[in-house]
Amino acid sequence: MNAELNQAVRMLNASVDGSPIVIGLVAASGYAVNPDAVAHGIENLQAQGCIVKNFSDPERKFQRFGATDEERIAQLYAAAKDPEVDIVLALRGGYGLTRLLPELDFKLLADSGKLFVGHSDFTALQMGLLAHRGVGSFSGPMLCDDFVREELSAYTLNSFWRCISQSEYTLTAQAAGNPELEVSGTLWGGNLAMLAHLVGSSYLPRVEGGILFVEDVNEHPYRVERMVLQLLHAGVLDSQQALLLGDFSAYRLTDYDNGYDFEQMVAYLRTHLPIPVLTGLPFGHGRDKATLVVGAQATLHSQADGFSLSMQGYPSLKR
Fold this sequence. Notes:
Number of helices: 11
Strand content: 15-25%
Order of helices and strands: HEHEHEHHEHEHHEEHEHEHEEEE
Low-confidence stretches: none
Structural class: alpha/beta
Largest sheet: 7 strands, mixed
Radius of gyration: 19 Å
Distance between the termini: 28 Å
Mean pLDDT: 95
């Protein structure tokens, strides 16, 4: 991160109430492959003026998880109960939160007033909070890989700190081929595989008139289509006003696809879904990602050359 951005982030943090922001780091899903990268990520957060409390422990990793189920729940509770912690930040995604959902005390987490931040597998926790307690959260960066890179993304950091430190935030994106529209409703969503996985459970919120955003990684276009159709067939999309597609990367096409690619998949969805489908949302597993507020009231304004998404009325770091 360049010195100018570093200083800007430190000033932004300090302007919240004059005291450092305290981040509670939890490994609620997978573990970090490289413990040295975790230390580097913590150093980067500290360089931005934050205090980091690490509730995870690389020595406690269990199978492919950051710790046993009981220990990962304990991490979440410890961060939520700590009076100094402002933000509960996911160490990384992967898999593991689904196993915890039936045992989680969503009231404890919601009543803590902490700002929960993450994406990917963290979507499961975010959907549970919204479904069970009506509490929003932030689909945004995680320690790995967003804060461990040698060169941090200025776009990611700028979006994250500005979104989380004020009660309204607008992002803009350049994108061609989207329909022209203006709709307002509850913004919600996250990782598409997790949303499809939660269909039929009590952990998927019942959102009426919402604006749904999705992203994923390592998913071939036909699998993306299949998961979106699952949401359609389950009746989820009928009550939405728009579907926003974020970043879908790291998949591999073959000769067998015979011209069926991401663009063809989107074209199919646009002719078969009952709601507008927009592409170009800067959110997902890539380097540059916007921070989105799950559960916020939002207005989506789309024109021929791009769109804006305004979020408002959500809890932030402003005391």
